[in-house]
Amino acid sequence: MAEDQRSALLRASKPATKELFSTLIAANHILHYHQVVDAYGHISVRNPQNPATFFLAKSLAPALVSSREDLEEYHVSDASPVDKDAPKGYAERFIHSEIYKKFKGVHSVIHAHSEVVLPFSISSIPLRPVFHMGGVMGAQCPIYDIQQHYKSSDPLHSLLVTNEHTGAGLAAGFNPSTMLAKGTNLIRSFVTSQSTQVPEFPSSPTVLMRGHGFTCVGATIEEAVYRAIFTCTNARVQTTAMLMQGSYNVGLVGERFGRGEKETGPAKHEDIKYLNDRECKDAWTANQGHAERPWKLWCAEVANSGLYTNDLGPPPGA
């Protein structure tokens, strides 16, 4: 028997650890505490003992996930539960299964409907890193438009990712080969195709979903949570900066006309300063080495809030 097969069998014979489940429960609470998710949204983790399955909460609001019994195991192949008698699960678990199927280096997936990110999924303004903590999003955040992926057999065009082909379309957006920048009244950064060579970890770890929310991935639960929280933070900072800059630009136009200028050419216009690709990559490289600091804080916040219960105790690093 080949060594890799032997190792795989040994891993599969061991159950996932209590620490893994405790971390997944804590992550649900942290995402709710930081308003990334509300009653909707979810986080999963690939089974380290068997990469062909993943764990995801049952049909529960993230804040209410509290025990091992609240977590279900699903097959990566088709998002079906390992337990044939499993109760109702999240309808959008195909988001998770199709991403795990495509990227072997992804071990955690988060999907959320954050209101601070949503405007960037339906407008012509791209979500881009504007400060060093935002580098974790990736240099570009493609937009997945599910309308381009429906089949005639789909009974509902609800924007929900409820089957394998819409999930596969979303997964492709994490590794686009080309990006199409459309006109000012249409969505920018629309995914037009995917790369033929699929890396273990995607080039764009955060993808917006038109009129729906966003999905991000991580090599660990902690990394995925970090990415989700700072994606929302970056969206708030960028929105504030655009409002300020827009007011300033309107003022420039007012000054020009107030002076009675006869010039008919374009008025002076200034933009906000974004991180370039190098800054984005290097900022995440630098911050990655200190990601345990916010994780420890976030665990303490939910442990002392009074709302959340983790029957498995504090996760590692708390």
What does this structure look like?
This protein is of the alpha+beta class. Helices cover 35% and strands 13% of the residues. It has 8 helices and 9 strands. The protein has helices spanning 3-12, 18-33, 93-102, 118-122, 164-172, 221-258, 277-288, 292-303, and strands spanning 42-46, 53-57, 71-75, 108-112, 143-144, 176-180, 190-194, 206-209, 213-218. A 7-stranded mixed sheet has the order 3-2-1-4-9-8-5, with helices on both faces. Strands 6-7 form a two-stranded antiparallel sheet. Helix 3 (93-102) crosses helix 5. The two termini are 40 Å apart. The model is unreliable at 180-190 (pLDDT under 50).
Summarize this structure briefly:
The protein is of the alpha+beta class and 318 residues long. The chain contains eight helices and nine strands.
